[in-house]
User: Which sequence fits this backbone?
């Protein structure tokens, strides 16, 4: 059984950057629906006992008639779990330690990385995501993807450690068509301690 990420903060905790109604709708409705649909599809496909990263990384092994449902709803489940888990009202607003060092070495600076990731988020046509990912050696990459795909389901050999949701339901109630304003605001609530924990988990294998 796949379990939806339970928020350790209130729906209004990200105000004024992310409004309470968006958080409630996004987590309580969209994310909850992806979770329920994934569990239903996984049960039919006989893969309910798999962990989500393994499942998304082996979609070719899922029976063909269930593969699209697993890909879409599994991606929606995984992506949103990561999205909500890397936000906090009082989190670290910049990376530290090994992650900070790797960001500087790879992109030149934290600000340069944010600028490049923002471009990927704004450049994603239609619904999708922008990603900061790591591989087991600790190397970092930035990318974007359509719909509910992610670096795992796309077979990149990397694991996302932070993401930007650019589906309209993530921002339209507050920011309307101003995606750039939303992306800028989102960086104000990213908890880089949580991102660093994700990074350390990936390189630990």
Assistant:
């Amino acid at each position: 059984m796949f379990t939806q990420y339970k928020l350790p903060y209130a729906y209004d905790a990200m105000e004024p950057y992310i409004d309470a109604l968006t958080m409630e709708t996004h987590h309580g409705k969209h994310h909850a629906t992806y979770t329920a649909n994934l569990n239903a599809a996984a049960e039919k496909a006989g893969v309910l006992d798999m962990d989500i990263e393994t499942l998304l990384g082996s979609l070719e092994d899922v029976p063909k008639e269930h593969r699209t449902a697993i890909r879409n709803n599994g991606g929606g489940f995984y992506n949103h779990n990561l999205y909500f888990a890397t936000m906090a009202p009082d989190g670290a607003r910049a990376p530290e330690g090994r992650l900070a060092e790797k960001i500087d070495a790879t992109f030149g600076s934290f600000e340069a990385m944010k600028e490049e990731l923002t471009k990927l988020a704004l450049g994603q046509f239609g619904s999708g995501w922008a990603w900061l990912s790591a591989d087991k050696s600790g190397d970092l990459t930035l990318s974007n993807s359509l719909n509910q795909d992610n670096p795992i389901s796309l077979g990149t050999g990397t694991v996302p450690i932070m993401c930007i949701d650019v589906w309209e339901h993530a921002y339209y109630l507050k920011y309307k068509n101003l995606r750039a304003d939303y992306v800028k605001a989102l960086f104000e609530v990213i908890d880089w301690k949580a991102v660093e924990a994700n990074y350390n988990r990936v390189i630990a294998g």
About this structure: The domain at 97-204 is CATH 3.55.40.20 (minor pseudopilin epsh fold).
